[in-house]
Design goal:
Helix content: over 70%
Number of strands: 0
Distance between the termini: 19 Å
Largest sheet: none
Shape: globular
Radius of gyration: 19 Å
């Protein structure tokens, strides 16, 4: 396991709260572990889409198994084990599919979202845009340069004539503010909040 996430403050308390269905605790765990799971999974899949799907499935499993949290001794190992097992399942499935279509003519496949899925994606984008628009002007600019233009911390610092530490602080606070905004969405359950954040690529 190459990733080495720092201990989440009050981790045992957060997992205990999640075990009782506390969605805010689930969100804190989700936002803490995503940056460490992503490179761990991508190293094996070499697919951004598969990595996002596996992260999504990992946290859905964590949420559905939440009542077992009091039995867990090492939360980091528990989460990484779930993600690794799901990655292996994906790799096996990919290998089987490749064997099944070996020698067959390659066809372009088109996937269409159902109306309900399209509405969900539009709503997710709307929630994220509202959250971003509430950020202070410079923080909003730093966030957009990072997420929408894909600039590095160094590139943003140079463009805005600020330090890399200032850029990092702006992004950290931006994510915190967005997370808090999402948690206030009426009816946003743990899995729903996860889907919105994944759709917005907040990691």
């Amino acid at each position: 396991m190459s990733a080495n996430p720092k201990i989440l403050p009050n981790e045992r308390e957060l997992f205990a709260r999640m075990a009782t269905g506390d969605e805010a605790a689930f969100a804190d765990i989700f936002f803490h572990y995503i940056p460490f799971l992503q490179p761990h999974i991508f190293k094996m899949t070499r697919s951004e889409e598969a990595t996002q799907d596996i992260i999504h499935d990992t946290f859905i499993s964590l949420w559905t198994r939440r009542e077992k949290m009091p039995e867990v001794e090492n939360f980091k190992s528990y989460i990484f084990t779930i993600s690794t097992n799901k990655t292996y399942d994906w790799l096996k499935k990919e290998a089987n599919e490749r064997r099944a279509i070996a020698g067959a003519r390659v066809r372009t496949m088109h996937f269409e979202n159902t109306t309900e899925e399209a509405i969900d994606l539009n709503q997710s984008a709307e929630f994220i845009n509202k959250a971003v628009n509430q950020l202070p002007p410079q923080r909003k600019l730093v966030f957009k340069l990072s997420r929408e233009e894909g600039l590095s911390h160094e590139e943003i610092a140079e463009r805005l004539n600020i330090s890399k530490n200032t850029v990092s602080n702006h992004l950290t606070e931006a994510l915190r503010s967005i997370k808090e905004y999402l948690q206030k969405i009426p009816g946003a359950t743990g899995p729903a909040l996860l889907s919105i954040a994944m759709a917005a690529r907040l990691f």
